[in-house]
C-alpha cells in the first residue's frame, strides 16, 4: 500500500512539473494534455486520473511551482540562524541568494504566466501571492527578531524590518530587470545585495557606545 501511495504521489509531482514546463513554454491556450503527458512521462489518461481538466491542471501546476519557489527562498534564510561575527557578510550572502532565486527560470516563468493568463485566471494572483511574499516576509521577520534579541539589530518591529529588507532588494531588482524581462548578470545581483544590506544596516544596527 505504501509503495502504491508513493507511486501515485510521484506521478502527481511529475504531472505538475511537466504541466508547468509546458504551460511556461507554450502558454495556456497552445498547451495540450498530450504535451503535458509526454513531458511528465506518463500516459494521457493518467493525467486525467489526477486532474479533471486542463484548467484545474493549470491552477495546481502554478500553485506547486509557487510553493517550490517559496520553499527555496525560505531555505536561503538559513544562514541567519547563526550569522557568526560577520553579520553584514551573512546578510549579503542571503540577499544575493534571494536575488538569484527571484531571477531563476522558474520565477521568471511564473511571472510570465501570471502576466499572460491573469485575465483568463484572475484567481491565480491569489494563488501566487498566497505561496509567496507574505510567508517569506514572516520567515525573515522571525530571523531578524532573533538577531534583535541577541543585540545584533536595533528593532522592536521585526515585521517592518523584514518588509524594508525585501523592499530594498526587490524594488531595484524589478526596475533593473524590467519586470523580469531583462536578464541580470550575477555580478550586478551581488552589487544590488551589497547596496541593500548597507542601507538596511545603517537603519537597523544598534548605535555603538
What is the fold's blueprint, element by element?
Layout: H1 2-26, H2 33-40, H3 44-50, H4 54-75, H5 87-102, H6 105-117, H7 124-130, H8 133-149, H9 158-176, H10 186-204
Briefly say what this structure is:
The chain is mainly α and 209 residues long.
Explain this structure.
The structure is a single chain. The protein has 209 residues and is an all-alpha fold. The chain has two domains: 1-51, Homeodomain-like (Arc Repressor Mutant, subunit A, Orthogonal Bundle), CATH 1.10.10.60; 52-204, Orthogonal Bundle (Tetracycline Repressor, domain 2). Helices cover 73% and strands 0% of the residues. It has ten helices and no strands. It has helices at residues 2-26, 33-40, 44-50, 54-75, 87-102, 105-117, 124-130, 133-149, 158-176, 186-204. Helix 1 (2-26) packs across helix 2 and helix 5 packs across helix 10 (186-204). The radius of gyration is 20 Å and the shape is elongated. The termini are far apart. The model has no long low-confidence stretch (mean pLDDT 90). One of its GO terms (molecular function) is DNA-binding transcription factor activity. Keywords: DNA-binding. Residues 32-51 bind DNA. This is TetR/AcrR family transcriptional regulator. It comes from Nonomuraea mesophila.
Amino acid at each position: 500500500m505504501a509503495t502504491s501511495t508513493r507511486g501515485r504521489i510521484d506521478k502527481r509531482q511529475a504531472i505538475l512539473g511537466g504541466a508547468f514546463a509546458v504551460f511556461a513554454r507554450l502558454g495556456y491556450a497552445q498547451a495540450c494534455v498530450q504535451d503535458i503527458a509526454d513531458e511528465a512521462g506518463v500516459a494521457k489518461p493518467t493525467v486525467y486520473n489526477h486532474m479533471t481538466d486542463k484548467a484545474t491542471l493549470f491552477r495546481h501546476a502554478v500553485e506547486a511551482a509557487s510553493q517550490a519557489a517559496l520553499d527555496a527562498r525560505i531555505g536561503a534564510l538559513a544562514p541567519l540562524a547563526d550569522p557568526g561575527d560577520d553579520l553584514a557578510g551573512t546578510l549579503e550572502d542571503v540577499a544575493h541568494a534571494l536575488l538569484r532565486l527571484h531571477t531563476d527560470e522558474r520565477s521568471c516563468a511564473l511571472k510570465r504566466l501570471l502576466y499572460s493568463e491573469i485575465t483568463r485566471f484572475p484567481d491565480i494572483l491569489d494563488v501566487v501571492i498566497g505561496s509567496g511574499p507574505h510567508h517569506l516576509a514572516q520567515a525573515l521577520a522571525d530571523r531578524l527578531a532573533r538577531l534583535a534579541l541577541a543585540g545584533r539589530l536595533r528593532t522592536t518591529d521585526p515585521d517592518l524590518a523584514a518588509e524594508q529588507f525585501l523592499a530594498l532588494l526587490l524594488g531595484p531588482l524589478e526596475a533593473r530587470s524590467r519586470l523580469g524581462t531583462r536578464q541580470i548578470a550575477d555580478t550586478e545581483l551581488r552589487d544590488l545585495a551589497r547596496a541593500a544590506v548597507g542601507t538596511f544596516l545603517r537603519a537597523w544596527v544598534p548605535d555603538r557606545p
